Amino acid sequence: MNTPNKLTLLRMLLVPVFLIVAYMERGSQVYLYSTLIFCIASFTDFLDGYLARKYNLITDFGKFMDPLADKVLVAASMIWLVQIGRLESFFVVIIVAREYAISILRAIASVQGKVIAAGKSGKFKTVSQMIGTILLLLNSSLGMPIMYIALIATLYSGFEYIYNGRDLIKEM
């Protein structure tokens, strides 16, 4: 297993650690330790992609697990934010629904022997969700404005993926 794939697995393993630490910090105004864990996990997303591209270490495992790890990390953190009253549940519903839709589209493409790579709007969506999550965990007033930007980016990128994949859907 190469380094980028190990980083992806580390990100998946950090999700329950994040939740355990967040639960231990429950009631705090600032979730400092869980935010640090979330930041480390988020950084592995950047680092694994960078290393995979730079050293040509792209694998089928990474193509599948990297986006899954991102989705699990973001969904878990946002569900936690709903639980502690810092985020409305409709954010999570829209974001998770978009993720399911794009995952289904990627599965359809895979069956047809095609790969849908992450686009710029999808990457911006992930970064804005992560930054918004960090700010909300830190109880920053900038958290909600960034989450609204993330929500718009989520919807835009979802529509963009579906529009660009419309031929795949027609072939079903």
Automatic annotation (TrEMBL):
Looking up Pfam families in the UniProt record yields: CDP-OH_P_transf
What EC numbers are recorded for this enzyme?
Answer: 2.7.8.5
**Bilayer-crossing regions:** 7-24, 30-47, 130-156
Say yes or no: keyword Plastid present: no
UniProt keywords, alphabetically? Lipid biosynthesis, Lipid metabolism, Membrane, Phospholipid biosynthesis, Phospholipid metabolism, Transferase, Transmembrane, Transmembrane helix
Q: Does the keyword Lipid metabolism belong to this entry?
A: yes
Q: In which pathway does it act?
A: Phospholipid metabolism; phosphatidylglycerol biosynthesis; phosphatidylglycerol from CDP-diacylglycerol: step 1/2
The record gives the membrane topology as: Multi-pass membrane protein
Q: What compartments host this protein?
A: Membrane
GO terms of molecular function: CDP-diacylglycerol-glycerol-3-phosphate 3-phosphatidyltransferase activity
Functionally, this protein is described as follows: This protein catalyzes the committed step to the synthesis of the acidic phospholipids.
Instruction: Please report which protein family the annotation says this sequence is part of.
Output: Belongs to the CDP-alcohol phosphatidyltransferase class-I family.
What name goes with this protein? CDP-diacylglycerol--glycerol-3-phosphate 3-phosphatidyltransferase
| Native source species | Filifactor villosus
Query: Source organism lineage?
Result: Bacteria, Bacillati, Bacillota, Clostridia, Peptostreptococcales
